[in-house]
């Protein structure tokens, strides 16, 4: 176990591009010095965009209908992402299941994930909307998906642990932690573990949600007030849907993909004009079912929601996924009245 | 005041005057309320009224009326103006909606409070018209009003069936125009740079559009594929075109409720630019949106004596 300040840890990453929360931009971006690194809590967006950029070039081409004119974007070199929380690191693994398991591998995501050094910060003081501890095997100090794991000791210093070979090598030059530092780290960890909300019922939730699919009483409250904006899906670390477009840039062309949201009517609009999810009722239901049921039924093990609470704190009309899970549980236990 | 609101809501529901009352209920997180739809008069106790009742409800009113319901709504000055604007644009008729008008002391953005207070940590949160407080820390409500509410001309509803509470005077035209004039004092390149910088944060979640009662097009220009007016990516040109394009579609229609600014997760400031637009429309056409329900917005009609400064 090592110990270091933000600057000292940043210095270990010399030669790499570093992505971190940038306060002024309110999102993750490249930083050139440790002074530019903001707190992940000060921005609404998750670190997802370091792995799945909002706007990503797939390839350039000189002439339509001429595959020989295609040019791939530059290779991704090793880079570091500072400021994931354990929920975010988990979310990147879950996106990885979709993008890289099975017959087709999304090389764009795969190479970014492979090339990244994930610096995960544990949470001694989870936010009021955080509930990662409600999910099996997760918590504010889970090291899953990290290369370097940081435990904040005070406002300046971190306990630093290399959790993969790459991570260990990078931090080798930092001083060893004293017994006092390690004890302080344990205290911080205990505080986080004791504070995190574990009250959201998630066991068997995937099946409970299935039985509520057609229950008007259950969804009515949500879809009447849902505005149909994309905030929840864009701040979510585990929402991974995208749209593909072509654009002309000068005398060349670019094929690119951008984040898309199941909350938009356009998302499911078919060429014929038919829309299988014609209203906000089907759209908000889709999101909740995907997060709390479909994914686990399809991939096993985990729910797609990781309990980061961003959608809860950013929703302009108070739609609260914790509340959805609690109400689902109550609906099943208490009959139809919730 | 909330008792009176609940009482009217209950009687309207019981009489069958309305099928649904749209108002505000407690949110599940500190510093928030959420829009609620009450169909059973036993539920009127869920209604709340405080400086966190931020969102303009007129968009919901239009949607519920179009779905065939008799709608009742709790309306601040701005909500009532939006309803007036929608009536003037023939989206529905005045008789389709019953309005509980409530003079408004100004609203506070929940994200401002999160920045100001951080987390509540289980301490008692008070949000009333005097102060917002968490535990021992307290801020007078008047001092942290959202930008749009600071320059509100019409805190008292213009259109209502019942008015609950004392009328509140709006600020003068001169006071209203101050932020817009400050912006106009900057040179055009400075303003252009300022807005490009602000709009560059846009993540295209379209919350501004979705929260705006006046944005009700079946197909928004940003979603149109044929013609494709603009690209979908993060190029600054497209981000500016989107935000400015949406704002241009609001000329003579925006009631300056501030919903777009309050829902924007990326803190894009829309208030000054919208206030400047309203100022211009007022000066050119002697028109303020949402006041007269029988007068169409100026860009949707013409008169032979229009100033036409931009041509002459």
User: Could you name the ranges of chain B where pLDDT drops below 50 across 5 or more consecutive residues?
Assistant: none
Strand content of chain A: 15-25%
DSSP helix fraction of chain A: 25-40%
Q: Give the C-alpha Rg of chain A.
A: 21 Å
In angstroms, what is the radius of gyration of chain B? 20 Å
Percentage of residues assigned to helices of chain B:
25-40%
Number of helices of chain A: 11
- The tally of structural domains of chain A comes to 2
Average per-residue pLDDT of chain A, rounded, comes to 95
Oligomeric assembly: heterodimer
Structural summary, described in words:
The complex is a heterodimer of chains A (338) and B (312). Chain A has helices spanning 6-11, 86-100, 107-115, 165-170, 179-195, 205-211, 216-225, 231-235, 280-299, 310-314, 321-333, and strands at residues 2-5, 17-22, 27-31, 55-61, 70-71, 79-84, 116-121, 148-152, 157-162, 242-249, 252-259. With 338 residues, chain A is of the alpha/beta class. In chain A, the strands form two sheets. Chain A has a seven-stranded mixed beta sheet with strand order 1-9-8-7-6-2-3. In chain A, helix 2 (86-100) packs antiparallel against helix 3 (107-115), helix 6 (205-211) packs antiparallel against helix 9 and helix 7 packs across helix 9. Chain A has eleven helices and eleven strands. The longest helix of chain A has 20 residues, at 280-299. In chain A, a hairpin with an 8-residue loop joins strand 4 and strand 5. Chain A folds into two domains: 2-195, no CATH class; 205-334, no CATH class. Chain B has one domain (2-300). Chain B contains eleven helices and eight strands. In chain B, helix 2 (58-66) packs across helix 3. The chains are: A alpha/beta (338), B alpha/beta (312). Chains A and B meet through helix 7, helix 8, strand 10, strand 11 and helix 10 of A and strand 2 and helix 8 of B.
């Amino acid at each position: 176990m090592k110990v270091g300040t933000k600057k000292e840890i940043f210095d270990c990453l010399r030669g790499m591009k570093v992505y971190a929360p940038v306060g002024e931009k309110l999102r993750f971006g490249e930083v050139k010095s440790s002074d530019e690194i903001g707190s992940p809590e000060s921005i609404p967006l998750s670190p997802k965009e370091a792995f799945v950029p909002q706007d990503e070039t797939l390839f350039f081409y000189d002439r339509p209908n001429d595959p020989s004119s295609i040019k791939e974007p530059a290779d991704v070199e090793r880079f570091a992402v500072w400021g994931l929380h354990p929920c975010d690191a988990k979310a990147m693994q879950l996106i990885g299941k979709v993008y890289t398991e099975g017959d087709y591998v999304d090389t764009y995501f795969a190479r970014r994930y492979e090339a990244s050094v994930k610096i995960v910060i544990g949470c001694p003081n989870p936010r009021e909307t955080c509930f990662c501890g409600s999910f099996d095997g997760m918590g504010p100090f889970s090291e899953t998906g990290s290369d370097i794991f940081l435990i904040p000791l005070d406002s300046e210093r971190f306990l630093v642990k290399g959790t993969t070979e790459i991570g260990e090598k990078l931090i080798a030059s930092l001083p060893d932690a004293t017994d006092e530092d390690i004890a302080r780290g344990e205290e911080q960890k205990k505080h986080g573990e004791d504070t995190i909300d574990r009250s959201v019922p998630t066991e068997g939730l995937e099946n409970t949600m299935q039985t509520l699919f057609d229950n008007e009483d259950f969804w009515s409250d949500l879809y009447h007030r849902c505005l149909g904006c994309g905030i929840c899906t864009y701040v979510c670390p585990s929402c991974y849907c995208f749209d593909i477009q072509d654009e002309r840039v000068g005398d060349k062309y670019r094929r690119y993909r951008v984040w898309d949201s199941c909350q938009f009517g356009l998302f499911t609009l078919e060429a014929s004009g038919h829309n299988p999810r014609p209203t906000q009722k089907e759209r908000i239901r889709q999101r909740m079912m995907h997060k709390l049921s479909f994914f686990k039924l399809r991939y096993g093990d985990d729910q797609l929601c990781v309990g980061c609470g961003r959608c809860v704190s950013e929703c302009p009309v108070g739609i609260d996924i914790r509340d959805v899970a609690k109400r689902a549980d109550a609906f099943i236990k208490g009959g139809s009245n919730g | 005041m909330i008792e009176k609101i609940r009482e009217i809501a209950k009687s309207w529901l019981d009489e069958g005057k309305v099928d649904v009352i749209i108002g505000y209920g407690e949110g599940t997180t500190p510093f928030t309320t959420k829009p609620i739809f009450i169909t059973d008069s036993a539920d009127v106790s869920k209604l709340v009224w405080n400086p966190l009742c931020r969102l303009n409800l007129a968009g919901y009113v239009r949607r519920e009326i179009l779905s065939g319901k008799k709608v009742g709504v709790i309306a601040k000055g701005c909500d009532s103006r939006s309803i007036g604007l929608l009536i003037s644009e023939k989206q529905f008729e005045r008789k389709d909606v019953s309005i509980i008008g409530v003079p408004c002391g100004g609203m506070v953005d929940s994200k401002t409070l999160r920045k100001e207070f951080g987390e509540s940590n289980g301490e008692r949160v008070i949000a009333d018209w005097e102060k917002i407080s968490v535990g021992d820390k307290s801020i007078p409500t008047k001092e942290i009003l959202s930008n749009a509410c600071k320059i509100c001309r019409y805190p008292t509803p213009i259109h209502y069936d019942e008015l609950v509470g004392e009328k509140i005077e709006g600020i003068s035209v001169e006071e209203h125009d101050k932020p817009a004039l400050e912006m106009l004092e900057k040179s055009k390149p400075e303003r252009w740079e300022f807005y490009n910088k602000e709009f560059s944060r846009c993540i295209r979640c379209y919350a501004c559009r979705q929260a705006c009662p006046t944005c009700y097009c079946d197909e928004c220009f940003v979603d149109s594929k044929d013609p494709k007016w603009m690209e979908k990516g993060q190029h600054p040109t497209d981000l500016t075109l989107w935000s400015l394009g949406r704002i241009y579609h609001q000329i003579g229609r925006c009631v300056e409720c501030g919903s777009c600014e309050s829902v924007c997760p990326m803190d894009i400031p829309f208030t000054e630019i919208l206030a400047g637009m309203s100022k211009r429309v007022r000066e050119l056409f002697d028109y303020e949106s949402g006041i007269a329900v029988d007068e169409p917005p100026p860009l949707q009609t013409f008169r032979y004596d229009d100033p036409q400064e931009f041509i002459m």
